[in-house]
Amino acid sequence: MTAPPPMLAGPAAASPLAALHGRCFDEIWDEHAFRALLFLPGTFAVLDDAREPRAFVLCRVVADEAEILTMGTLPNARRRGAGRAVLTEALARLHEQGVARVYLEVAEDNAPARALYAALGFVQTGRRKGYYAMPGRTAVDALALSVGLGGSDAGRFAAPLRFGV
Ligand SMILES: CC(C)(COP(=O)(O)OP(=O)(O)OC[C@H]1O[C@@H](n2cnc3c(N)ncnc32)[C@H](O)[C@@H]1OP(=O)(O)O)[C@@H](O)C(=O)NCCC(=O)NCCS
Fold first, then answer.
1. Residue 111 beta carbon below 6 angstroms from any ligand 1 atom
2. Cα angle value 51/9/142 (rounded, 5°)
3. DSSP assignment of 34-101, as one string?
4. What is the rounded CA–CA span in Å between residue 147 and residue 159?
5. Residue-averaged pLDDT of the chain
6. Taking the model in full, what pTM does it have?
7. Domains observed in the chain
8. Which of 105, 108, 131, 132 is catalytic?
9. pLDDT digits over 75-100, tens only?
10. What pLDDT, on the 0 to 100 scale, is given for residue 46?
11. Which of 55, 129, 39 is closest to 89 using CA atoms?
12. I need a surface site. Which of 2, 77, 82, 108 has the fewest CB within 10 A?
């Protein structure tokens, strides 16, 4: 059976987003945090499925630039294309909105995320030394990545979009 296309999501999706985030990261972003972010102009999420989401991405647009604030796939659903699907959908939506460049930060030791971002064309533009510092652990550098959505890249992310939650 073909998987349903990813869904755009707004503040009503704060609860499932917080639940997904809590299973993907140690750091807690609760429902209130997601709701507050999703009420900000230019901020939206993409879920892979409205009823049983397994992957999400949260983006914020400011003028013609955007940032991927966070993304994740449930541990038991990884490596099946859900992360790629939601991020591709988000980039398509950003491209449609006239965004020229998308930025994000990723821990240097996060090989799965770095591989996903590289597969979608992100390249490293900077480094923040010791940015991810946890008590009792060696600090890890953050890599700043970005991808251009304009010029010859136009159309690369032109996927059909469907409004959801
Ligand atoms: C990073 C993450 C979102 C990837 O989600 P996913 O649904 O497993 O990714 P996909 O199945 O769509 O993979 C797409 C591509 O990314 C790369 N990739 C993903 N996981 C990988 C892994 N463990 N090792 C190597 N490459 C990987 C591959 O290129 C893959 O394509 P392929 O399967 O055709 O080879 C997921 O591992 C995750 O939630 N990690 C914890 C949270 C996190 O780190 N978020 C990002 C913070 S910056």
1. yes
2. 110
3. HHHHHHSTTEEEEES-SSS--EEEEEEEETTEEEEEEEEE-GGGTTSSHHHHHHHHHHHHHHHTT--E
4. 17
5. 90
6. 0.92
7. 7-153 (3.40.630.30)
8. 105
9. 999 999 999 999 999 999 999 999 99
10. 96
11. 55
12. 2
